[in-house]
Records
---
Amino acid sequence: MPEPGSKKYDIHRARTRKNIEDQGAASDKGANEEANAKLQESPEWRSRGPRTERGRGPKGERRGE
C-alpha cells in the first residue's frame, strides 16, 4: 500500500487534485488540500506507522511496553 510521501501516493494525489480543479470545486491551493484530505480518509492511502523497532523511538519513551 502506498503511503503519504511515496511516488505512487503523489501521482494519485496529483490526479485527484486535477479532477477537483476540472470540476471547478476548488481553487489551486484548495484542490491540493482537498485531494490530500480525501486520500487520508481512505485506509488504503493512510500511513501505517513505523515498521521497525527503531522507528518506534527510544525504548524508554515507547508506550505500551
---
Amino acid sequence: MKTLRFWKITALFAAIALVVACGSSKDLGRKAESVQAQDEARAKLATVPDTLEKEAFLQKVADNAQSIRFITSKLKFTLEVGNRQMTLTGSLKMKRDDVIRLQLMAFGFVEAGRLEFTQDYVLIVDRINKQYLKVPYAQLEFFRHSGVDFFMLQSLFWNELFQPGKARLTERNLKRFTTDVGVNNNIVVSYENSELSYRWLTDRESARINMANVLYANYLRGNYQLTWDYDEFKSSNRKMFPMKHKVSLATPEKEIKLEMNLNHLGNDEDWEPRTVLSGKYRQMPIDDILRRFMSL
C-alpha cells in the first residue's frame, strides 16, 4: 500500500509541477547562474551594429529549427521541489503543430501518468487513480494571464525561437528581435513585450540556442522567471537537437526544477496523437488537483 500511495503522489506531483513549470511565463522565475552572468554582462554589451549582419544571424538561428514533423524519444525525468526529488522513466512524443505528450512510467513498465498538450487543451491523466483533467488553456490561471499557448510550449520543447501570440516566425517577426554580444562571445537574442522579457542565449558560430529565458517583472507581485537550458546536442535529420533539457522555475514563494534526459531519439509516426480514455476515468476539478498539489 505504501508503494502504491507513493506512485499515486508521484504521478500527480510530476504532472502538475510540469504544467506549472512549462506553462507559466507570468509565473516564471529563477536567477539561474547563466542568466545572472548574462545580466551582469548586459551593461557591457555592444549592440551588433550591422543591421544586415543581425538579420542574417537571426535567420540562421531560425533555420536551425527542425523541419521534421515528429520527434520521439525515451527519457529519464527528474523533478525537484524544495527538498523533494523523484526520478521516473518514460517517453516524449511530439507531432509538429499538433501535440506534445509526456508519458511517465512506474517501475519502468507501468504508465503512471500522462501529460498532453494540444492547440486546444491541456490533458493530465492519473492512470493509477483513474482520474484526469482536461481543460482549455484559458481555464488555467497561469496560462490565461501570461498568454502562454501551445505554440510557445512547442518552441521550448523543440529548441526554437518564438514570438508570443504567433504560430510561426516570419521574416517580419524576426525584425522585432534584437541581438547583443554576450559573455564568452555568445549572442543574446531578445524580445520585449510589456512586463515580459524573453532572452535566448545562442552560440555565435553555430547559432544554436543553448538557453531560453522568460522574465516577468512586477513591482507589486515580484519577479518570476523561467530558464530552459539545452545541452548534449545530437544530430537528427541533419539538424541538431538537445538531448538534455534542464528547466527551472522560481516564484517569490517556491522553486521548481525538472530535468529531461532523452535517449534513442527517433521520428516514429506510428502512434495515436490523441489520448482516448475509457468510462472508468473520472474528471478532476481544477481546484481539487491544485489543492492536492499544494498539500504535497
